[in-house]
Amino acid sequence: MSFIDVSNVWLRYDDAVVLERLNARVAQGEFITIVGTSGCGKTSFLRMLLGVEQPSKGDIRIDGAPLRDEPDADRGIVFQRYSVFPHLTALENLLVVRELEQAPLLGRLFGKARAAAQEEARAMLRKVGLEHAAERYPHQLSGGMQQRLAIAQALLKRPKVLLLDEPFGALDPGIRADMHELILDIWRDTRLNIFMVTHDLREGFYLGTRLWVFDKVRNDPQAPNAYGSHITYDIPVGQTEHSLYKRIDRDLTVTRQAQGL
Amino acid sequence: MKRIINIKPDHTTRFLLGALPFVVLLLVYLFASDARLALNPDDKLMPAFSDFGAAIQRMVFEPSARTGEYLFWGDTWASLQRLFLGVGVSALVGLLVGLFNGAVPLARAHLAPIVTVWSLIPPMAILPILFIIFGLGELSKVMLIALGITPFIIRDLQNKALELPAEQLIKAQTLGASSWQVIMRVVLPQIMPRLIEAVRLSLGAAWLFLIAAEAIAAQDGLGYRIFLVRRYLDMDVILPYVAWITLLAFLTDWLLRRLSLAFYPWFHSNGGGRT
Predict the structure, then answer these.
(1) What's chain B's Rg over C-alpha atoms?
(2) Using a CB-CB distance cutoff of 8 angstroms, which residues of chain B are in contact with residue A50?
(3) B181 with B172: CB under 8 angstroms?
(4) Region A59-87: what's the mean pLDDT?
(5) Which of A139, B89, B122, B153 is the most buried (most CB within 10 A)?
(6) How confident is the model at residue B205 (pLDDT cuts 50, 70, 90)?
(7) Sign of the CA dihedral with B170 first, then B172, B178, and B180 last
(8) Do A71 and B167 touch (CB under 8 A)?
(9) Residue A100 sits at the chain B interface (C-beta within 8 Å)
(10) Which of A82, A99, A139 sits opposite B165 (nearest CB)?
(11) Is A23 in a helix, a strand, or coil?
(12) Pairwise pLDDT comparison (A47 vs A241), residue with the higher score
């Protein structure tokens, strides 16, 4: 039995089909990277998993149950930007996870409960290499450190699925490599289901266990919005050859050119 | 030669440049006043500085011969009370309504249209109504200030709440936050420094409404005094009063800014609240 079931999902806006005929089964613990050209609907798909967008047709199930149509604690998210709270220090950004959990009315903890939550938050900061920055506000952290914090925050809630929306898109290549290391470590430790959207094919190709390519197979030059994307490649990562990388790269380039991007 | 847009004055130059207009204004006044007084020693329009001194001595440091009160301090106290009460009520109502309008689409659909219409009513036009309903006492003056600036604060805070990145609200929900918790832990704390900003911006309007209301119907207050002594062309009282009001306004603004800097350091280094 698969953990996540995507069956015949379509996503349609007023005059445009974004996604069509999406079908996929995902087992527990898979790390899926999703690549595609801009506007191919990969982020829309992630937003459907998150619950902020609903499929026009078809449904997505997690653990047999249909997705809730709003974000909840089952699905953690890290965006490219704005993923941490600017008015809280790094430590408070993690502390708030337990405070929301245990203090439904005030959203704040005091005394022993606070000390315990603080202990846990510090341990998590240490894990992502931010213990020296506990008292700093996000604007005092570099882009990479902010993303580390965002990942730590999402992990602390122990979601069933972790969604990453181009989380390293704004980072320098060197920092990006560190972040890949971190996310792989986390995945090995927790065996979380991870979905990561990226526009960098290389990143998608070498990170994770499974690669999805979102692309349009049908393209009508007179009506560019008439057809949506679907999963054109669904391949296990690690057993792939460079020639395949080249072929996917070429396919995406063709789509990009057809769309005039 | 550097382009003029690239020349940045150093600290001293900036101070001197900034002080220059004040000095010029003062000198122009001194010369003009001297010239007028030389022609007509009884001229009341531009009193000499010695006349200001005498007026200040009379108003600030000596009890009034008629009532035995220190007029200047009585006026200041009465005006500040009205101002702070009016602004305080506005800030509170503005925060509550603005917060919920910004955070809850249902509340916004419900209240935003009427707040928009309300904000378009010129407050001075309904001052007579306030006098009729609330009488000529303190309440009508406080109400004028409150009715005048509350809609501005509501709309400003509502927009500021809407400008918070959607990512933050989604993130909070994925951490399990309820609507109430999102409002209390994510929206409210980020709106607070913006409330201070909105109050600072609306203080000018608040003073305007206060002085207008006092000019029309009051027994004391800074605005009342200015309009009272206008009958006798007492420029030696009016000008110090105007300077005092300006100083009070400046101090209030400065205090609010310090408050915001002390409590919301993240806001100011994020590029918000530069003014």
Answers:
(1) 24
(2) 170, 174
(3) yes
(4) 89
(5) B153
(6) very high
(7) negative
(8) no
(9) yes
(10) A82
(11) strand
(12) A47
Give pLDDT tens digits for B206-226: 999 999 999 998 899 999 999
Evaluate if residue B123 carries a pLDDT over 50.
yes
Cα distance between residue A249 and residue A200, in whole Å:
10
- The pTM assigned to this predicted structure is 0.86
Residue A249, both tokens: 């790269």
Q: What is the mean pLDDT of residues A244-253?
A: 76
Q: Please provide residue A233's backbone torsions phi and psi, each rounded to the nearest 5 degrees.
A: -130, 135
B64-97 burial: b if 16+ Cβ within 10 Å, else e: eeeeeebbbebbbebbeebbebbbebbbeebbeb
Radius of gyration of chain A (CA): 19
Q: How far apart are CA B261 and CA B222, in angstroms?
A: 30
**B212-228 as b/e: b if 16+ CB within 10 A:** bbbbbebebbbbbbbbb
Strand order in the sheet with A16-26: A16-26, A4-13, A57-62, A65-66
Q: Do A81 and B167 touch (CB under 8 A)?
A: yes
* Chain B closest-CA separation from residue A164 CA (Å): 12
pLDDT tens-digit readout, B38-74:
999 888 889 999 999 999 998 889 888 888 888 999 9
**Interchain CB contacts (distance < 8 Å): A and B:** 79
